[in-house]
Design goal:
The chain is of the alpha+beta class. About 35% of the residues lie in helices and about 25% in strands. Keywords: Transcription, Transcription regulation.
Length: about 260
């Protein structure tokens, strides 16, 4: 099996939901499960980010009229789409969505299922202007067919690029890697250290550092909180030798399996 990774990039204004990710770089979505048949596609996504950005997400998704990145790749009218927010916290959502496929309005999972058939495994991740897909494929000819059909189905303002076709590394290693800490969170940690945030006594507060960086204090606090959680899990995994899962709210426990 090989891992096929490609990214659909969105220009600002091309899609109402992706605009939220472009405008809010701390907003992040990752699939927990994606399934597709010749008739429909359904999926479960975890969206994380600042409270304000997630509230905007709720409002926009509740009024979607065009096929968008939650359910597909096109700019055509939605055929039949159902979604439900299964879990909601201050900094996360777990969203279930299901759509029927229609003529000329195929989703990326539908295209993949059509060419791969039974045994389809795929992942999806959204951040900024990029929506990245990972597929497990055992036939290189299938890669070309999927690429051509996805590329042909993109609406205006969307572009397609291929990152790799290689051994399925990301499917085999669940441990956190250093490059999984987003650049903005790395920068937040570096600024906090540089300005003495972790010194005793503390040399600068979050509010003071955010003014120096020219960003809202809530944004800096969110980035630091996420980065600190990442560091804690790294320490437990690598130093103590104990594998841990990211902590979830009680309401989410049955979903994160």
């Amino acid at each position: 099996m090989r891992e096929f990774v490609f990214t659909v990039e969105y220009k600002k204004g091309a899609n109402e939901v992706m605009d939220l990710f472009i405008e809010n770089p701390d907003l992040h979505a990752k699939s927990m499960a994606v399934h597709a048949t010749a008739d429909s596609m359904w999926r479960l996504d975890r969206i994380t980010g600042p409270t304000e950005a997630l509230e905007e997400f709720d409002a926009v998704v509740d009024n979607v009229t065009l096929c968008n990145e939650v359910i597909g790749m096109c700019g055509a009218p939605v055929v039949e789409w159902n979604y439900e927010i299964l879990s909601s916290t201050a900094d996360s959502r777990i969203v279930y969505s299901c759509r029927k496929e229609g003529d000329g309005v195929q989703s990326i999972p539908y295209v993949a299922a059509k060419h791969i058939g039974d045994g389809l495994l795929m992942q999806a991740e959204r951040r900024g202007a990029q929506y990245q897909w990972r597929l497990l494929i055992d036939d290189d000819d299938t890669v070309g067919a999927i690429y051509e059909e996805v590329n042909a189905g993109l609406s205006d303002g969307l572009s397609l690029s291929v990152q790799r076709l290689s051994e399925p590394k990301c499917w085999l290693d669940d441990n956190l890697e250093a490059d999984e800490l987003p650049p903005e969170q790395q920068a937040a940690l570096e600024a906090a250290v540089e300005h003495g945030y972790y010194q005793t006594p503390r040399e600068n507060t979050v509010q003071e550092i955010s003014k120096k960086l020219g960003i809202p204090s809530s944004t800096l606090q969110y980035r630091l909180t996420r980065a600190e959680a990442w560091l804690a899990r790294q320490f437990v995994n690598d130093v103590l030798g104990t594998e841990v899962e990211e902590r979830v709210e009680p309401a989410e426990l049955e979903l994160n399996v």
